[in-house]
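Quick one before lunch.
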Amino acid sequence: MIDNKKVLFSGMQATGDLTLGNYLGALKNWVTLCDEYECFYSVVDMHSITVRQDPAELRKRARNLLTLYIAAGLDPEKNCLYYQSHVSAHAELAWILNCYAYMGELNRMTQFKDKASKHTENINTGLYTYPVLMAADILLYQADVVPVGKDQMQHLELCRDVAQRFNGIYGEVFTIPEGYLGKIGAKIMSLQEPEKKMSKSDENTNASIYLMDDPDTIMRKCKRAVTDSKACVSYEEDQPGIRNLLDIYCACTDKSTQEAVLEFEGKGYGDFKSAVGESVISVLLPIQTRFKELSTDKAYIDQIIKANAEKANYYAQKTLRKVQKKVGFPERIR
Ligand code: TRP
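Model of the tryptophan complex:
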């Protein structure tokens, strides 16, 4: 609890360009949570180096992501938006937690197995202990809730297990975090293979709408979206493409599925897809404009980075000190 509010933590990697799925599924809803929760949103650059990065590129992307957080509506006065690498307690707590996580547990992580099979030339131990760093992220702020996608649930479970194990030995040190899965956000699927999640790492660029896509590109991608031959805009199990476009439309216009289906009754897929495209453009254009404005204001962004890193550090240090004491590190002489 901070100021009588529950604490919420989440993070995103600055690798790959954010998609409409990231926005509608996460960011858009994050904006609404700051009244209810004390929110920390980290750009998790330390996680990013578990796979090889171009340094200049990583730095640029990290800054863009933080700027995008603000452009998408996260108020940096109300939300703590910061770089993970600016708070060294993440690394320090991760080390300690490494000593309480079992290899057997990490061996079971499906994302590790997946990434290891994709990057056979660089299966480093950071990739392996990635979930422990993620646990440290969450536990440092005594987070009560963690909005994550399904793919991160296994990591969150590990975080809970390690926290409970630690508490079992040392008393109530960590708040045990809950997932926030499915309670918020639309799950947006690929425009080309609507059975698959829209992903920033999809090789087919037509499958994803990126937050920075220009209006023509957005429209073109919507028009090319895979549908079916039923020629009827309805929310049916056997129409995954149309369902996905309806989800996008509804998330962008804040209409209900029912309303949207009525609206397109008797209309063809061409008209429907144009309307979906328009709805996406009307949501993304203001974010893009704001992003461009913010990007030119270096001093403003720098000041946010500095102030929020200090705030994050303050809370992180509190937990870290407590943990260090529990495990038996000597007291600091002041
Ligand atoms: N691993 C998460 C992802 O790739 C990002 C992340 C890092 C995270 N630390 C976190 C998410 C803590 C939630 C909480 O999506």
